[in-house]
Amino acid sequence: MNPLLEVRDVVTAYGKIEALKGVSLSVAEGSITCLLGPNGAGKSTLMMTIAGILRPKQGSIRFSGKEISSLQPHAIVACGMALVPENRLVFPNMSVLENLHAGAYQRRDAFEDDIERLFSRFPKLQERSNQMAGTLSGGEQQMLVVARALMSRPKLVLMDEPSLGLAPLVVEEIFRIIGELHRDGATIFLVEQNAHMALKVAQHFYLIEQGKVTFSGDPGSLAEDEVIRRAYLGSVKH
């Protein structure tokens, strides 16, 4: 598979503190690629850097063969990338339907059919289409931010900790949806702490620690690494 996203030697800093220290990785077109790492390792910083919210100090970010590291977030969305941010950032004082419309703010075509398709995929959102997003449950808000991202018809979906803080049954539902999106052709770059669930859907894994990528491999090699198993899977292979 060809790389849809290529990150090369990216350094991102908060003042004088470097959160990313020369990160390189790629996301193959048509894949689910997962980034693991402890809290504070730089996972969300990388996602925000790719999405244009943070500007890298140095390095290259290429999307569909185009350099995007100097582009503003709205221009990166226009290129075909969408971010599902951490912490379920809905627009709380807007309805579910208004949130979906906000996801299509750059489109100039009719998108009512897309809303109907999303309502078919997320029936709970259809039931609550006129409800204020801030009153939804955590799981429903997560479904809404995923659906809102899909309204831009992205080639690549960045998902930052989609299962964070959700009940186990809701986590199962979120990962079922991620699997469905992939089967429908979506390319997904996933930041996730739940390695057990990620192993069920992802084709390639990276591990980031202290701002540096320390592992790259497929699910089999991830499960074979005893240090990673101990830290993220809760057991060591004997």
Can you walk me through this structure?
This protein has 238 residues and is of the alpha/beta class. The chain has 10 helices and 10 strands. The protein has helices at 43-50, 73-79, 96-103, 112-121, 123-127, 138-150, 168-183, 195-201, 219-224, 226-233; strands spanning 3-14, 17-28, 32-36, 58-63, 66-67, 81-84, 156-160, 187-191, 204-209, 212-217. The protein has a 6-stranded mixed β-sheet with strand order 6-7-8-3-9-10, with helices on both faces. Helix 3 packs parallel to helix 6. The model has no long low-confidence stretch (mean pLDDT 91).
Search tags:
238 residues; alpha/beta; six-stranded mixed β-sheet; four-stranded antiparallel β-sheet; 10 helices; globular
Order of helices and strands: EEEHEEHEHHHHEHEHEEHH
| Number of helical segments with 4 or more residues | 10
Average pLDDT value?
91
The unreliable regions are none
**In percent terms, what proportion of residues is strand?**
25-35%
Coarse structural class: alpha/beta
What order do the strands of the largest sheet run in, or round the barrel if closed? Answer: 6-7-8-3-9-10
As a whole number of angstroms, the C-alpha radius of gyration is 18 Å
Tally of DSSP β-strands: 10
Oligomer: single chain
Helix content class: 25-40%
Form type = globular
